[in-house]
Q: What sequence folds into this?
């Protein structure tokens, strides 16, 4: 499978954090779905100096770029305009023995 690191940074307007918190349950449900399918490796929130969520990092894996594109079209933080910018880079999880 192809692995990817996804970095999404939230919008910075006054209502950005409230929007994130409203959409967060849908984002987490979507993450549970892709975990069940074997596409989710790990993820978490990027925090500012005050401990507030300002973005996310996810490590995902898909067989094809088309599957990655389908995920991007359905990810709530993208479709609901929580992430202002999204960067997807090829990635390889290290095997540590």
A:
């Amino acid at each position: 499978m192809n692995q990817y690191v996804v970095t999404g940074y939230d919008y910075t307007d006054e209502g950005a954090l409230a929007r994130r918190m409203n959409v967060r349950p849908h984002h987490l449900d979507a993450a549970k779905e892709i975990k069940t399918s074997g596409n989710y490796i790990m993820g978490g929130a990027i925090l500012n100096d005050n401990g507030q969520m300002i973005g996310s990092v996810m490590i995902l894996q898909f067989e094809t770029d088309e599957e990655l594109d389908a995920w991007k079209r359905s990810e709530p933080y993208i479709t609901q305009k929580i992430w202002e910018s999204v960067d997807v880079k090829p990635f390889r999880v290290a095997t540590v023995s």
The first helix runs from residue 16 to 36. The beta strands are 2-10, 40-47, 53-62, 83-91.
